[in-house]
């Protein structure tokens, strides 16, 4: 009996002792940091504090906003989460807790961007000059085309040859208009050789736009010489089982009509979003009517807990009459430009572990462009304000076809290791491989000359290490590019960030940054493969190259109600491909790496949120550029020592918005300074410059209680007469109004 009592007492003591040891054994605290919409916040700083406020450990959230503290005793702790542009939050926890910490957006917020580092990174931790326009920003501008939205981004100059739908070029920091890598949800949209036509790209169904200025070829290969611009389409939300329907219609001056319809939602692990829009306008010139249709679809499916499949489909289909330089003479009566773009992308993303993420993607893009003039209009003599050409200009028929295709396969692996609290720091290492198969058919179907049919295969591999040591963020990477035209080359990229001051009341976060990068651009198919003796292709062309340094400071103040950003840049563009005449009788010429230019400058960006519902801001860009080597030494516009074509020295914008109850009023003003241009019409004396102009737009909206929003916009309120490109009058004062229904 005593033995049984002894064994029972021993068992009870052992059980209690084991429970005590278990209670005292190290456990862990886990959690996720999200914003007010429950979107995860990667790279947020998370500190584990004891009851006295002393730091026990610290870490950064991963790409899904998750964090973890291991070997934590069963004691009471406090967990502090912070991220620049969001309010710091402090919560209590103990061993075994699984937390969700919600960070409220600061009056002047920051964003999480993908394009700057090819991984999800807060803009406060990216070294490159990055601008993010989210859906409210895009809607507030109430523009019909994306190019008009980009006009207000610092460092960007948008030039449209007349009304909506006409040829539209985008110049960034003094680079050429084909020096911009254009992506949509990771799908490359550039034609072979870098060209991208912004003329009919609508802003429908876009969640955000990310613009990264400076060379990014180390991440994205060819074409990323002066910037990378990525558009992100709208996604459905799986938790919204009831479909969301949106309908809108607006009308205005120049017989402008636009209708839109959207459907989005989800069920369990499936989400979907459809979009359709139609835009029609007569513009203000004869034979300048423009119509455009846009279709988009975004579908996601969760395959288990760690894998997601996504399918993206879309297209733009537009036609515009091209009357020519109507400021100098009669319009062309029947010339037109038709463009049809289609794209598709399929991606598989797998979160293999908490520190390893993989993505495999296949995309296809096709653009078919037709420029046609079949009717011969009578000759005319160009004249403009006392300038007259010495001879008549005659019309000629043409039927140009450009049919380009691109297949793209990409694999990316992101591995995180280390700890920000340790001397070795925390690292995110990215490996990426991309393969592009490019095809094109280019011809003038009336000229009877040989057409250009070519293809090119490119392969590139990227390595990048993002390291965080305390207040220092160092990103280094390079890319090995094997191009079907110019062979192999290596392009590096490096950035350093120093977080000089953390968040505070009066003086907020201070960020110092420095970047260096190289860029490359492959030749176009015409430049490499044209069989015409008049414009013979040169298969031995080298890539065009860019070298850029930029540096800056970002300062937050006034309790996160204000942010000032100053950027300086120094860019060199060399081996620029240009045409040179070899003989005049018969006329023969070909392409060479001849030209070189330099662009230095600065950007000033100010954002203010002085009161709830009030936002103010502006930006100014100073650009000092010069042609250092010219392919046309006798040209008054393109000679050595001349400023770069259509890139002003001074430009900027100012915006203001006010939300009051159900009303919103917006004001956007854009200023473009004097710039070099050409009449291209042999006027005497010649026009070699384009004067400055200011464009002021005012918009408004009213949100009714019946899920209907009424809105309107007045563009070019001052009715200023100006030309973005000489000879092509910009639209005069105009207005639109409409309504949007959301169910």
Description of the molecule:
The structure is a single chain. With 743 residues, the chain is mainly beta. It folds into three domains: 25-103, Immunoglobulin-like (Sandwich); 112-230, Beta Complex (Ferric Hydroxamate Uptake Protein, Chain A, domain 1); 231-742, Maltoporin, Chain A, CATH 2.40.170.20. 6% of the residues lie in helices and 57% in strands. The chain is built from five helices and 42 strands. The strands form eight sheets. The chain has a 22-stranded antiparallel β-barrel. A hairpin with a 2-residue loop joins strand 22 and strand 23.
Mean pLDDT: 91
How many H/I helices? 5
What structural class do you assign from the helix and strand content?
Answer: mainly beta
Report the uncertain regions: 1-25
* Terminal Cα span: 78 Å
Looking at how many chains there are and whether they match, the oligomeric state comes to single chain
Q: How would a textbook summarize the main sheet?
A: 22 strands, antiparallel, barrel
What portion of residues is helical? under 10%
Global geometry: globular
At the first level of CATH, what is the class of the largest domain?
Answer: Mainly Beta
Provide the CATH superfamily of the largest domain. Answer: TonB-dependent receptor, beta-barrel domain
Number of strands: 42
Instruction: Predict the CATH topology of the largest domain.
Output: Maltoporin, Chain A
Number of domains: 3
Sheet-strand content, in percent, reads: over 45%
CATH architecture of the largest domain: Beta Barrel
């Amino acid at each position: 009996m005593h033995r049984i009592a002894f064994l029972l007492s021993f068992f009870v003591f052992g059980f209690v002792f084991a429970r005590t040891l278990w209670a005292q054994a190290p456990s862990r605290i886990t959690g996720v940091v999200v914003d007010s919409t429950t979107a995860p916040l990667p790279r947020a700083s998370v500190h584990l504090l004891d009851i006295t406020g002393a730091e026990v450990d610290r870490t950064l959230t991963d790409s899904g906003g998750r964090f973890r503290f291991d070997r934590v005793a069963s004691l009471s702790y406090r967990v502090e989460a912070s991220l620049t542009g969001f309010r710091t939050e402090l919560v209590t926890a103990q061993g075994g807790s699984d937390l969700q910490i919600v960070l409220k957006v600061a009056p002047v917020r920051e964003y999480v961007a993908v394009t700057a580092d090819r991984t999800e990174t807060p803009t406060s931790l990216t070294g490159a000059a990055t601008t993010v326009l989210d859906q409210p920003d895009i809607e507030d501008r109430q523009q019909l085309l994306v190019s008009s939205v980009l006009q207000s981004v610092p460092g960007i100059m948008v030039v449209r040859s007349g009304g909506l739908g006409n040829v539209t070029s985008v110049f960034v920091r003094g680079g050429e208009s084909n020096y911009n890598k254009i992506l949509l949800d990771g799908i490359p949209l550039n034609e072979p050789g870098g060209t991208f036509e912004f003329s009919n790209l609508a802003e429908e169904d876009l969640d955000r736009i990310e613009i990264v200025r400076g060379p990014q070829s180390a991440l994205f290969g060819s074409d990323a010489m002066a910037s990378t611009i990525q558009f992100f389409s709208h996604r459905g939300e799986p938790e919204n089982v009831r479909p969301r329907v949106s309908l809108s219609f607006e009308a205005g001056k120049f017989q402008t009509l636009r209708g839109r319809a959207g459907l989005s939602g989800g069920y369990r692990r499936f989400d979907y979003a459809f979009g359709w829009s139609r835009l029609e306008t007569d513009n203000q010139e004869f034979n300048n009517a423009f119509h455009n249709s846009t279709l988009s679809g975004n579908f996601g499916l969760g395959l288990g807990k760690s894998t997601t499949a996504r399918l993206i489909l879309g297209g733009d289909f537009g036609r515009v009459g091209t009357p020519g330089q109507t400021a100098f003479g009669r319009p062309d009566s029947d010339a037109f430009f038709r463009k049809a773009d289609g794209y598709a992308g399929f991606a598989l993303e797998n979160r293999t572990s908490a520190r390893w993420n993989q993505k495999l993607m296949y995309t296809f893009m096709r653009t078919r462009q037709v420029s046609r003039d079949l009717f011969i209009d009578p000759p005319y003599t160009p004249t403009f304000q006392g300038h007259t050409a010495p001879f008549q200009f005659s019309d000629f028929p043409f039927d140009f076809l450009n049919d380009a295709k691109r297949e793209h396969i990409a694999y990316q692996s992101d591995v995180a290791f280390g700890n920000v609290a340790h001397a070795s720091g925390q690292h995110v290492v990215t490996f990426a491989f991309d393969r592009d198969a490019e095809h094109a058919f280019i011809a003038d179907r009336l000229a009877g000359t040989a057409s250009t049919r070519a293809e090119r295969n490119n392969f590139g591999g990227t390595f990048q290490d993002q390291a965080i040591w305390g207040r220092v963020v160092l990103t280094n990477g390079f890319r090995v590019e094997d191009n079907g035209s110019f062979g192999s080359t290596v392009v590096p990229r490096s950035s350093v960030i120093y977080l000089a001051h953390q968040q505070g009341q009066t003086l907020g976060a201070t960020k110092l940054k420095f970047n260096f990068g190289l860029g490359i651009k492959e030749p176009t198919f015409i430049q490499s493969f044209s069989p015409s003796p008049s414009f013979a292709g040169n298969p031995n062309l080298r890539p065009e190259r860019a070298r850029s340094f930029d540096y800056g400071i970002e300062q937050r103040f006034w309790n996160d109600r204000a942010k000032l950003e100053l950027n300086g840049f120094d860019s060199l563009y060399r081996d620029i491909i240009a045409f040179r005449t070899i003989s005049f009788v018969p006329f023969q010429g070909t392409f060479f790496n001849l030209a070189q230019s330099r662009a230095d400058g600065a950007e000033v960006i100010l954002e203010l949120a002085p009161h709830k519902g009030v936002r103010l801001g502006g930006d100014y860009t100073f650009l000092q550029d010069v042609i250092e080597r010219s392919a046309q030494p006798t040209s008054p516009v393109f000679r050595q020592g001349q400023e770069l074509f259509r890139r002003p020295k001074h430009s900027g914008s100012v915006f203001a918005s006010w939300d009051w109850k159900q009303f919103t009023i917006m004001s956007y003003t854009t200023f473009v300074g004097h710039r070099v241009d050409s009449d291209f019409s042999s006027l005497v004396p010649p026009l070699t410059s384009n004067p400055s102009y200011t464009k002021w737009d005012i918009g408004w909206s009213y949100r009714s209680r019946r899920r209907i929003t009424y809105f309107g916009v007045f563009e070019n309120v001052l009715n200023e007469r100006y030309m973005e490109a000489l000879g092509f009058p910009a639209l005069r004062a105009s207005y639109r109004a409409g309504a949007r229904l959301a169910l």
